[in-house]
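User: Show me a protein chain along with its predicted structure.
Assistant: Here is one chain, sequence first, then structure tokens.
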Amino acid sequence: MTNGASDEFNLFVIGAGSGGVRAARVAAAHGARVAIAEEYRVGGTCVIRGCVPKKLLVYGAHFAEDLNDAAMFGWDIQQCRFDWPVLRDHVLAEVDRLEGLYRQTLESNKVTLFEERAVLGGPNLVRLESGREVRAGKVLIATGARPHMPAIAGIEHAMSSNEVFTMERLPERVVIAGGGYIANEFAGIFHQFGSKVTIVNRSDQLLRGYDEQVRDRLLQISLAKGIQFRFNATFEGIEQVDGGALRLTMSGCDDIEADAVLFATGRMPNSAGLGLEALGVKLGERGAILVDEQSRTSVNSVFAIGDVTDRVQLTPVAIREGQAFADREYGGIDAQVDYRAIPSAVFSHPPLAGVGLTESEARNTLGTVKVFTSDFRPMKNVLAGRNERSLYKLVVDAASDEVVGVHMIGPDAPELLQVAAIAVKARLKKSDFDSTVALHPSMAEELVLMR
């Protein structure tokens, strides 16, 4: 079709990440004629340069401790050497495979894919980079978010989480800016791969929003491993010196010399340059697209889901929002997204996970609260001679006996937390936990043995 020609779709999705692909696929399955535009790669942040490749690096990093512990379990490993390019290339190959599967999903559901940038030209008009104009009954913005890179001198010498997966070589010394989940995850990864890691955080708190007792345990363990921290510190500038090293001019701590700097200081909604302001779509703080409970913007025909709305920046939430949007608008289903009791995890070393209210949140909102903890040394760590301890925590509403929060740090905590999240979502009571027979020997049994 020539430039300027017009097509008619029931739905046009801008952004082929996890949320956008789910919305497109489900809407098409309901019988809608759907198109989707993506200017980079199908799959979005999670699949291409986020949680999936990062989790594969986490798996790779775990071998460092496992190989070290192996001797106590009778294994004689003569040579232990890590080869970054091997892992990097295998991870990138897996990303390619997953992108192919996402493309197959769109194709099998007869969703038209435009591999180019798309912007809004009107309430029902999308303009493609090629000049083509496409009309649609509804437009869904699912453009996600991007790493925040501060405006400091020499920032071009730093990298974001996007670039980690394609590094040519591992840095001997890496400084990570930030105290959130991305910073702590990559701190564990780099440390296990043999880099000297320093985390620089502008406040004195890590992982704001997670239970204080659990995040304090991660700090203690990280320090014991040799990860360094500089709290209440900020960057003033980055300068490359002879030999390729970086000199970091700091405020709040001594200047630092490093071989790489990673900024993990949050993610900004990708709303700029989409034609939203001209159309009258209201934006909030940091450029977030403002939406109602139906994911509708201030323009009736334009909707938005996922990280670009800055509601909850988690891939499963974007997928839920995409599913609910498609079911409501094209399936005649009164689908709503419940934002209560959303489980989340930090794939640090060791990982931590939580769902529901933290202890402080519960005390501030419920009044009388009971807290149960299990502070133990996993069986594997005992035999390996590793002193690292796990911590499980139940937060209970004393008035109703309802378990309103579960928080954990230790091996496989995210895997266990998914099941515990069902219990919190179902509003089970502490007595339900107590009456459940323990599965022995396991770490999970600690969840039903707290008294």
